[in-house]
Design goal:
Radius of gyration: 25 Å
Strand content: 15-25%
Bound molecules: thiamine diphosphate, iron/sulfur cluster
Helix content: 40-55%
Largest sheet: 7 strands, mixed
Number of strands: 18
Oligomer: single chain
Amino acid sequence: MSSPGGERLFLSGNEAVARAAADADVSLGTGYPGTPSSEILEAFDECGGRARWAPNEKVALEVGIGAAFGRARVLVTMKQVGLNVAADPFFSAAYSGVDGGLVVACADDPGMGSSQSEQDNRNYAQAAGVPMLEPSDSQEAYDYAIRAMEVSEEWNIPVMLRLTTRICHSRTVVETRNVAGPTLEPDFGRNIEGRVMIPAHARPAHRRLREKLKDIRRRNEESDMHFVDPGDGEPAIITSGVSYAHARDAAPDAPILKLGMTHPLPMDAIRDFVRQHERCVVVEENDPYLATHIRAAGMDVEDKADDFRFDELNVGRVRAILEGQQEEEKEDVPPGRAPRLCPGCPHRKTFEVLDERDAIVTGDIGCYTLGALGPFRSMDTQLCMGASIGMGLGLRQVLPEEKARRVVSVIGDSTFVHSGLTGVVEMVYNTPPTGHTVIVVDNGTTAMTGLQEHPATGKLLDGTPSEQLSIEGVAEAMGVQNVDVLDPLKETEKLDEALQKAHDSDETTLLVARRSCVLARKKARRREREEAEANA
Ligand SMILES: Cc1ncc(C[n+]2csc(CCOP(=O)(O)OP(=O)(O)O)c2C)c(N)n1
Ligand code: SF4
């Protein structure tokens, strides 16, 4: 896989991370799709890497930790909220450390172009005690992915590569280089004290982690990952990630301290810079992560006003921050056209039926969330992946009987596998007095994030066949009393009747509304054509 380097390529940040992983001989890439991170593993596959979609981010990270215990180089990818799902192993892996190299590429979505929250994952690196590198363009995405692997291997610690939407999707020139491959062969050596995180082992592991972080910080002080762009303008700027590019354009004459490793922070280097300038402004997207930690270290730096905490930054907004503007002038932006389900989308019929039935719908995340908007307006709740079933059960437990019977949980096939299964266990275990009804809207793909495969499609990331998880089989095995599969378009009446029957009974029901996504069908036909051409 590794290349001699020296190529000049025009890559997105996601492609640059994938190319770095291929050049660094990463043994395994695993993750769960989520905008803006999804293309990393797809591009890694195209570079010849071994890339796999896991059922969810927690499993992906656990697979990654296992492989890194086996001394391999591993890349794990996810979007920012994915780390909420994977947080448990993330915190513990910081204690246990790893034997190979483990890089967690985690992509934040400032402005929430495709997310339900504007969560700033830099706080996770700090909270878990995991070193973090923040690239500011595709070249740095390439270089820092390699650096992150080196830091991970040198200190035996997972490392977070923190990306944001602009970095993931913007293309800039990348020069590849010859990257040293792993020095260790995959192997497993017993280390029970280091890897079994019972309290007696975790207490010294926590102390070891804090010592490691002190050493990494000392190394970071000397590192070329932070540098000063000299200038004689005022104010001086401290920044990182994509904000560096905006700051450079907004204030070309200003001295800028650009940080690369932002956990643990090189506080001595920052202090030196702050001492030399009368007025220092921290420019960063979303949370005041840098500003808070720099101030906590006793330095007097200016922070952006609260108004600038929301959404992505751009050159104009950075100028306003540097001028000390406290409130942002809001432009009247005409509302864009609301997104809609595609014509012929299989989810449409299900929502028409639910609308006619006046169901109370606890929903989930996917294309089908558009059932909450016009013309259907028939989804009443949506919080995070997998929440539909638990929330439906909660309502069923407390509502008066007639209303409780109207509650239906709607969840997509990818989301069902990701985090719906334990909701079904709750439904079977703590069945509400009126029972409960779940509809799995199975369109045979992860449509919302770009038509990725998942365990219930029976195909791996690259389209090769794999064991297919049966949604109805799992539901039956878990003890759901009534399980049925139907085509929402061809069997609309049957769907309505099944919902009526479920409404009137006190039993648990799971209906699989199965019909392929129109775009997934097109993609499958394209793939078949390409395969036929290749074999001709
Ligand atoms: C924890 C988490 N991981 C990933 C995502 C990104 N994401 C949103 S919906 C979704 C799955 C959509 O697939 P499916 O449930 O099958 O519905 P479809 O879009 O195909 O209708 C994903 C991966 C997310 N929002 N949260
Ligand atoms: S991409 Fe597929 S699932 Fe999503 S709206 Fe279009 S047809 Fe429906």
